[in-house]
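Late entry, evening session. Most of the bench is empty. Finally got around to the prediction I had been postponing all week. Sequence below, unchanged from the version circulated by S.P.
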Amino acid sequence: MSTYLLELPIPSHWDQKPFTIRGKATRENFDRALRVASRHAEELGVGASRAAYLLDYDGRPTVLKIAHNVNPQNRIEVKALFKTPAIRRSPVVIPGIDYDRTSSSPVWIQTEYASPITTERFEQLVTLDPRSLAGLVGLVRIRLNEGAVTRPITPAKIAQMASVYRGEPYASMDPANSTILAMVDLQARVPRIDFEDCKSIRNWGLYQGRPVIIDAGLLIVPPNWG
């Protein structure tokens, strides 16, 4: 057995086989993994492509995301969270822990856990709501593409760009806010990133006191990533 399998985050009392598929996984493999997780862990949410479970790991809560079938969502998030350094290191993205490296289509991904966050709490911490933040970063993207602004993008540059929007919420925005700076920096480092899905508060969580994007795969628009 390889070192990787020995370090598998799945608890030892779970059936390990569905999580260690070698080669091409089948629909039955995914269904079996979901059944095992459902028996042993709290379900955090279910989407069209996968389900998320609360998994105790080294004494702390983490999230185990299990695909429903062979679909690109886990593969896309693996590419974003584990294989794109700027995303992996960004303080505005939930940290990844590990992922399924044995199957051609990852059955599971493990990330740190972020607690739910309300729009009101988000605004308190960021000085902008999620939709306005994504709109600001979208403007930065346009200006970068035009060559009208260059890195490093300072709070002064952010305030100047935001001045095209009159009134609230940008009038009371703090351009030196750490989340705003991290979002803008990530956009500047990885121009192909798209923050459109980050307009929704449901795609944010609270991790170690700061707002984070809970699904790094949302940042990737497949046609732009090959």
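Two things to note before I forget:
The CA atoms of residues 31 and 56 lie 22 Å apart.
The helical segments are 3-6, 27-40, 72-83, 85-89, 119-126, 130-146, 155-162, 178-189.
Will write this up properly tomorrow.
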